[in-house]
Amino acid sequence: MKLTLSQIRKKAVNKPFEFDEMVDVSELETMNNDIREIKPVRVHGKADIQGDQFFFSFTIEGEMILPCARTLVDVPYPFKIQANEIFSTSSYYGSDEVEHEIHPIDGEVLDLTPYIEENIILEIPFRVFTKEDNPEGGAPSQGNGWELVSEVKEEKTIDPRLKKLESLLENKKEEK
To answer: Would residue 50 be called left, alpha or beta, if left means φ above 0 and alpha means ψ between -120 and 50 degrees?
Structure first.
């Protein structure tokens, strides 16, 4: 999402510059994170100018597909992120600006896409879970010689080595 500084200055004379666009952030899918798929996101907000600083306040809305922490199936995760970013055209950029997260603007074009992507990455949840009990295509619950046992599924199974002892106990009960 690229905006020219002259465009912002021209429209932000008496009131804030407002914008509302769909932004393609599919580059996030190739990064080393859990996002499997992300559709274009809606970015809307406003920009105010004070001297050589541009104050952006915007909302990012969209949906990403993340893996379920238990079954690894795709889980749609809708999000709505409020973000504030400050940019400066000042040639005096020092440690004060870095500390207050004021981003420098080089040239006449301001690209908000990296800041939109950064805010999305910061909002990725640690883990998500699917609402389905046994989702299709999920991680298997049993395999070759193993089975997933949960607290809910408790069966009394007898060790095959002790099976003969059980038959002896049954014989004694019948004799009494």
So the answer is: beta
